[in-house]
Specification:
single chain; 81 residues; alpha+beta; Arc Repressor Mutant, subunit A; three-stranded antiparallel beta sheet; 4 helices; DNA binding; Tn1545/Tn916_Xis; HTH_17; SinI_DNA-bd; DNA binding domain, excisionase family
Length: 81
């Protein structure tokens, strides 16, 4: 493997890491999270999150008939119990 190929591989890895950091920063600046984002953030499965929302254990906002937003505060409050 040439030095140029190694450099390209390293550059690719750095770009991926930067993209991951940018995504995390964007998520941190949001008021709420989609169910998918909340699952990734909390480690709770999407099905379980839907159950928790339906039971009233986690507050959420119904944005459209198909879209729910969980506020970060509601998710953190649940996780800290």
């Amino acid at each position: 493997m040439t030095a140029q190929m190694l450099l390209n591989d390293e550059l690719f890895i750095v770009r991926q890491q930067l993209e991951n950091i940018e995504n995390l920063l964007a998520e941190n600046n949001k008021y709420g999270l989609s169910v998918k984002e909340a699952a990734r953030y909390s480690g709770i499965g999407r099905t379980q999150l839907y159950r928790l929302m339906e039971s009233g254990e986690i507050d959420y906002k119904q944005v459209t008939p198909q879209k729910r937003i969980i506020t970060k505060k509601a998710l953190i409050d649940y996780l800290e119990r």
